[in-house]
Amino acid sequence: MKSAVILAGGSGKRMKTDKPKVLHEVLGKPMLEWVIDSCRSANVDRICVVKGFASEMIDEYILNSGYGIETALQSERLGTGHAVMMAEDFIKQDLDGDVIVLNGDAPFIDADTILASFEEHKSSGAGATVITARVDNPFGYGRIKRDGNGILGIVEQKDCTEDEVLIDEINSGCYWFKASDLLSALPRLRQNNAQNEFYLTDTLGIILSDGKKVEGYIAKTSDVVLGANDRKGLLKLSDIAREKIIDKHLENGVEFVSTDGVVISPDAVIGEGTKILPNTMIMGKSVIGKSCVVGPNSRLTNIIVGDSTGLDNVVAVDSKIGSNVSVGPFVQLRPNSVIEDYAHIGDFVEIKNSVIGKGTSVSHLTYVGDSDVGKNVNFGCGVVTVNYDGSKKARCVIKDNAFIGCNTNLVAPVTIGEAAYTAAGSTVTKDVPDYALAIERTDLEIKKDYALKKLTRHLEKGKRIK
Ligand code: UD1
Ligand code: CA
Fold first, then answer.
1. How far apart are CA 107 and CA 223, in angstroms?
2. Which ligand approaches the C-alpha of residue 202 most closely?
3. What is the pLDDT of residue 436?
4. Residues 10 and 126 in one domain
5. Could you tell me if 180 and 300 lie in one domain?
6. pLDDT of residue 321
């Protein structure tokens, strides 16, 4: 079995927050989740997160993720080796397996690197395989000391000699271990170094001294080592990821008119022929179909969209939009909205927790909340579903082919029957049967010359003042 231990004990002090460092986000996704998702994509069977600072926030995150991940607590920060010691019980559960140790604050470790290094680890039969990278500026990282192909050990920046400082192959902080070799090395770690810590890197020398092999796997891209300690670092990671993600979509046939203000989450899926216009954020696990036009000025979070749909100046969260739908400009779709195929949602419309049926048109200045709307319904301008009486919410049902006149208030709970009409300006408080008209108005009174008299009085008053 393949297991992973993810080190996530660090604080967000330099981020100036009280969150654990690994919960800070790159493109809207916590760094820890990037690492967890890479493990899952690489078919790692079991994951243990070592928490330390603000561990209750890590617990809460893991609970909400639904991933079924284990945790171990490091209550004192005594180094990376000490952190892995805290996961001893987790590692012991699979003595014949292999364990990858990863840094929770280095989000770009990818499934391909995890898998390719695993292949090498298995085929060489090494006790440990270090994922390394060659970088222009190795400052701060542990340097890889080699002897021919094999690895002799890792020297931390603070422990480097003048010669070692010049080595440009560095330790990514990710390593595969045979579980049994790791377990045998951990209790033999000592704090005899510049930082007085238990260095995980010292396990390599111990494994070598036991007569086992230690190998290195050089990552295809040095991005796998990148981490963030502060806000500047976090922004840098977001910039790097943003560019890579847009490149991937360009290769898949997505069109960008300009990438200004375009931010796409690593987990978003976009179909070919779809055009993304400026200032558009496609966040979370959004899935957008083919030949859509999205933007400008839109923010979609966890939205599923069909094909050939247009979204112009739309803010939408946790909702589903069909194919051949037009939404916008200036529309908000709040959670749990479903807009079916061929519907039209026009300007200044807000939809919440409602279904809008196929071919239905909600063209202007309307609020539809907690409602089930059928097919081919027409909403006039300025309709309001009155779904909240100050203490509880209720639903409106509007059946197929109904026609809701301009400026109608539908006071929930209420049902508008099939093909029924409501007259403009009506406040509807009772169910309307199929094919009926609901009209709620007082008779219109005309007061002849009322305005003329008023105007005359006004003009006379003006003369007196002069
Ligand atoms: C470590 C490696 C170094 C490597 C670098 C890559 C050691 C001794 N050095 O250095 O060779 O180049 O990573 O980034 O391992 N953590 C804990 N508890 C602790 C200490 C650390 O949970 O007691 C966590 C941190 O929160 C972080 C990860 O382990 O997520 C790495 O720790 P960090 O202090 O950044 O290690 P480095 O000194 O950078
Ligand atoms: Ca680090």
1. 9
2. 1
3. 98
4. yes
5. no
6. 99
Residues 308 and 422 in one domain: yes
CA of 227 to the centre of ligand 2 (A): 7
Instruction: Check residue 464 and give its pLDDT.
Output: 79
Structural domain span for residue 384: 252-438
Structure pTM? 0.93
The pLDDT of residue 64: 95
CATH number of the domain bearing residue 271: 2.160.10.10
- Our answer on whether the CB atom of 132 is closer than 6 Å to any ligand 1 atom is no
Kindly give the parts of the chain with pLDDT less than 70. 466
Both 206 and 320 in one domain: the answer is: no
pLDDT number for residue 466: 67
Same domain, 204 and 264: no
The finding on whether 156 has its CB within 6 A of some atom of ligand 1 is: yes
* Closest alpha carbon to 256 in 302, 295, 289, 287: 295
CATH number at residue 171: 3.90.550.10
| 459: in domain | no
Residue 448 resides in a domain: no
Q: Classify 349 as helix, strand or coil.
A: strand
Q: Crossing angle, helix 111-124 and helix 31-41, to 10 degrees? A: 50
Statement to judge: residues 129 and 195 lie in one domain: yes
Query: What CA–CA distance (Å, rounded) separates 250 from 246?
Result: 6
Pick the atom of ligand 1 nearest to 198's CA. 8
**Is 411 domain-assigned?**
yes
Region for residue 344 given its phi and psi (left: phi exceeds 0; alpha: psi -120 to 50; beta: otherwise): beta
Our answer on whether the CB atom of 10 is closer than 6 Å to any ligand 1 atom is yes
CA atoms 222, 224, 227, 233: torsion sign: positive
Distance in Å, CA 54 to ligand 1 centroid: 17
Q: Which residues are catalytic?
A: 364
The Cα–Cα gap between 172 and 100 comes to 12
Give CA angle at 381 (376, 384), nearest 5°: 90
User: What is the pLDDT, as a whole number, of residue 417?
Assistant: 98
Ligand with minimal distance to 76 CA:
1
Residue 466 included in any domain: no
Decide which of 225, 260, 289 is a domain's last residue. Answer: 225
**What interhelical angle do 55-65 and 31-41 show, nearest 10?**
50
